[in-house]
């Protein structure tokens, strides 16, 4: 059985952790090679940056003040080496961490897609469409970018350690002042970062709510106008926008404090070390070169202490995003996937309604209400738990992958933004194109093909917005026919087309699916005339089965189908 891209293999709980911190570790661990290389390269670059002012101080003391050029050659070579290391090695480390961040973001999006395919309708009601947009964009970005910021925070720590050691060797007072200043920065900024995290959680929740409302109105604006609900929605959206604005102000207030402290505290540290170094130089405890080195190294350490604060900000933002992601990953499918049986054959039977779909035949299900018939189709396609059977086997005992591979349920399915060829999924080459054209012809979708430039490369917009309602419906039918599933269950596949087109579609589909199991929910006489058998459903139960001519002898059935005909 070929792999089904719509139902990826299940991951073990260890693959996607349920805890936010563990998920961040999982994201970073997947890029171990790139992250480790980036950390090593930035460590070398950070040490080289600190060694630059130290090397210059040696030139000042041993060459300029000593009045001799003998040590100049070796210190010049070292100066060139550390200058190259501080720049070129930095570029390599930056590139490595950026690649790790990009891979991490893609991995998160893939995890979201795979879990959405596995959980299916289990996500419905738990995660809004707007929340899904934020998960795959903003949250995926933040959980990836924290790796990048972590590298620069680590570089700042390395620079602080190397600088403190070199300054301590020059004077313990300078080393102690530098370390105390860095610790003080962390002590002051820490509570502000905690408050920022609190505001970010509230802001992230408000963004999800507002995005969900915006997504809903895009899909239902016409309905809102029809029932006069625009004003009510406007009031709700205005209230949610106000809440989001207030949450944004909270984030901005805390973030402004962080940014202000990032700018001011390092300057205070530079001033403190410079003052201590100047006093020591005046007393003769350190040389002029060591004083210049103290200033230069402290300036670099202070500059990169902001990177350490940025690292803390990134980790907080990533933890908030990871909390939302793991909440999504904790949603469960409402369909059990513990079946192992394969190779089922025979009729598909739904005991709840009494509907039986005989193999190799076109069955038309007639019902005054489409919902009960659609529910029966969902049970037979195993999109809802039931006691349905396939031959002698229970559907629940069959491997879900096999059911998905062999049974296709066609409803008002979504059309994604992609080419016509990608929509039909028939593959590249002349054989794939011929198969796609055959499906288009059978579905009466020739005008769709021509309106997209008569090429498989024609673009279908998101949701099929560049097509009419009838064209979208026929394109969905063409996609289902191109899949060539063993069993095709279709719910009102031609409700949006005119009678002449529907007649052609029914005739062509019956011919294209000859010898294959097909069931269509419709009361249209144009389909009924070509059915091998008709199942008449009343109040969700099959009342009679036979040919259209046989069932037409019953007044209620004839009244139902004749209304459709008239």
Describe this structure in words.
This protein has about 575 residues and is α/β, with parallel strands linked by helices. It is built from 17 helices and twelve strands. It has helices at about 20-30, 30-65, 70-120, 130-170, 170-225, 230-280, 290-330, 370-380, 400-405, 420-425, 430-440, 445-450, 470-485, 500-510, 525-530, 550, 555-565; strands spanning about 350, 355, 360-365, 390, 395, 405-410, 420, 460, 485-490, 515-520, 535-540, 540-545. The strands form three sheets. Strands 6-9-10-3-11-12 form a six-stranded mixed sheet, sandwiched between helices. α2 (about 30-65) packs parallel to α4, α2 runs antiparallel to α7 and α5 runs antiparallel to α6. The chain is elongated, with a radius of gyration of 34 Å. About 35% of the residues are buried. The model is unreliable at about 1-15 (pLDDT under 50).
How much helix is in the residues? 55-70%
Q: By helix and strand content, what is the structural category?
A: alpha/beta
- Rounded mean pLDDT is 80
Order of helices and strands: HHHHHHHEEEHEEHEEHHHEHEHEHEEHH
Biggest beta sheet summary: 6 strands, mixed
How much of the polypeptide forms β-strand, as a percent range?
5-15%
Total helical segments: 17
Number of strands: 12
N- to C-terminal separation? 46 Å
- Strand arrangement, major sheet: 6-9-10-3-11-12
Overall geometric form: elongated
| Contiguous uncertain segments of 5+ residues | 1-14
Global Rg: 34 Å
- What's the oligomerization state? single chain
């Amino acid at each position: 059985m070929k792999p089904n891209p719509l139902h990826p293999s299940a991951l073990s709980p260890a693959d996607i952790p349920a805890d936010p911190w563990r998920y961040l570790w999982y994201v970073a661990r997947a890029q171990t090679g790139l992250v480790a290389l980036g950390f090593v390269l930035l460590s070398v670059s950070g040490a080289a940056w600190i060694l630059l002012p130290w090397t210059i101080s040696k030139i000042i003391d041993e060459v300029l003040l000593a009045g001799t050029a003998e040590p100049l050659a070796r210190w010049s070579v070292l100066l060139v080496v550390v200058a190259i290391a501080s720049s070129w090695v930095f570029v390599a480390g930056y590139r490595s961490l950026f690649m790790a961040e990009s891979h991490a973001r893609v991995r998160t999006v893939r995890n979201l897609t795979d879990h959405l395919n596995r959980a299916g309708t289990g996500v419905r009601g738990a995660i809004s469409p707007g929340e899904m947009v934020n998960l795959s964009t903003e949250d995926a970005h933040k959980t990836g970018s924290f790796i990048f910021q972590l590298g620069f925070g680590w570089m700042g720590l390395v620079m602080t350690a190397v600088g403190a050691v070199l300054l301590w060797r020059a004077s313990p007072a300078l080393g102690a002042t530098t370390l105390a200043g860095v610790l003080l920065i962390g002590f002051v900024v820490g509570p502000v970062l905690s408050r920022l995290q609190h505001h970010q959680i509230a802001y992230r929740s408000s963004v999800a709510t507002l995005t969900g409302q915006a997504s809903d109105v895009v899909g239902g604006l016409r309905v809102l106008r029809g029932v006069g609900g625009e004003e009510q929605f406007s009031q709700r959206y205005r209230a949610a926008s106000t809440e989001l604005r207030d949450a944004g102000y909270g984030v901005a207030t805390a973030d402004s404090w962080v940014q202000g402290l990032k700018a001011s505290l390092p300057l205070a540290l530079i001033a403190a070390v410079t003052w201590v170094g100047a006093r020591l130089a005046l007393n003769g405890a350190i040389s002029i070169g060591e004083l210049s080195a103290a200033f230069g190294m402290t300036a670099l350490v202070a500059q990169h202490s902001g990177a350490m604060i940025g690292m803390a900000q990134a980790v907080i933002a990533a933890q908030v995003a990871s909390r939302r992601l793991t909440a999504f990953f904790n949603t469960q499918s409402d369909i059990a996937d513990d079946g192992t049986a394969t190779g089922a054959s025979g009729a598909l039977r739904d005991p709840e309604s009494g509907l039986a779909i005989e193999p190799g035949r076109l069955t038309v299900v007639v019902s005054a209400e489409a919902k009960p018939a659609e529910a029966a189709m969902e049970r037979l396609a195993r999109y809802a738990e039931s006691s349905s059977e396939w031959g002698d086997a229970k559907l629940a005992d069959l491997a879900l992958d096999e059911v998905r591979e062999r049974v296709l349920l066609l409803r008002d399915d979504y059309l994604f933004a992609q080419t016509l060829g990608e929509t039909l999924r028939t593959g590249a080459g002349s054989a794939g194109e011929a198969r796609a054209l055959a499906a288009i012809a059978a579905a009466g979708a020739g005008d769709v093909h021509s309106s997209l430039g008569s090429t498989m490369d024609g673009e279908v917009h998101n949701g099929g917005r560049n097509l009419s309602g009838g064209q979208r419906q026929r394109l969905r039918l063409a996609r289902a026919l191109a899949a060539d599933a063993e069993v095709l269950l279709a719910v009102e596949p031609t409700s949006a087309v005119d009678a002449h087109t529907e007649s052609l579609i029914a005739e062509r589909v019956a011919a294209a699916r000859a010898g294959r199991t097909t069931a269509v929910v419709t009361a249209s006489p144009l389909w009924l005339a070509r059915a091998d058998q008709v199942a008449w459903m009343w109040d969700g139960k099959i009342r009679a089965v036979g040919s259209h001519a046989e069932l037409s002898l019953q007044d209620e059935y004839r009244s139902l189908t004749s209304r459709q005909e008239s």
